[in-house]
Structure prediction request, 289 residues.
Amino acid sequence: MTSPREPAPAGLPPVPELVAVAERIAREAGRLILDGRPQTVGVAATKSSAVDVVTAMDLASEELLRRMLAELRPDDAVLGEEGGHRAGTSGVTWVVDPIDGTVNYLYGLPAYAVSVAAVVGEPTPATWTVLAACVHAPATQETWTAGRGLGAHLDGRRLTLGATPPLAGCLLGTGFGYVAERRRAQARVLAALLPQVRDVRRMGAAAIDLCQVATGRLDLYYERGLQPWDLAAGALVVAEAGGVVTGLRGAPAGSGMTVAGTPERVAELVRILEEQAADAPDGAGRESG
Ligand code: LIP
Prediction:
């Protein structure tokens, strides 16, 4: 998912340089949203539903990310959650989520992050090669970074995924969409999974969930409906920590499904999710009972 079969094209900037840019701009945007968070955060707009919100700080954070990228990497493209795609000429695209975990930010809960990734290739999970990543969580002051072939780090400490317990002993992270029909389908799948695992955590920020897998604080994570900006950086952190990130039925991770963890446990969870038709169109899932 983070690196399709083709190797990254030649003539690209050194990966460490891209990691440094990712971390610099993620930290700067993190400072903005943390220091600038008003007592009461207002909703600037809604998207897929009345509870799928955008705050003024989402917009300000992405504007800062784009402004810094225009200065630091003027020839690169940008794909952001709020501002869409701006073409570039270098072959590098920055995939940014200005606040991943917007609802947590709105409520003053700490699980939110600025997620920044540099990719080459068409900027979709099925076609990109992720070269560099930074997920910065300003409320907890934790910063995950990863470079393709350079490993993953949390606050400079190298991350390496260890063995995970049997599925029944696994702590499972997940998340849910914002539209009722999708949530109904996701609840059905969760009900089938819950008796088979240690427990479930729904923390509300995919980028952080993925990084918690890389850090060993979650054994597994799955979610349907992730957008490229939710996924790009965290998936590289998992991969560079020795984990796998995939979709179902041999597909790469993406909006259809994202599953992350150690290879063996991911294979088990993928099998269950496929049996539960967890990627079926909403409302077409397995009959209950
Ligand atoms: C969030 C994801 C989370 C998902 C939420 C939401 P946002 O992204 O990170 O995993 O469960 O529904 O999509 O909207 O806060 O950037």
The chain has seven helices and 15 strands. The pocket of L-MYO-inositol-1-phosphate is lined by residues 81, 97, 100-102, 175-178, 204-206, 223, 230 (CB under 6 Å).
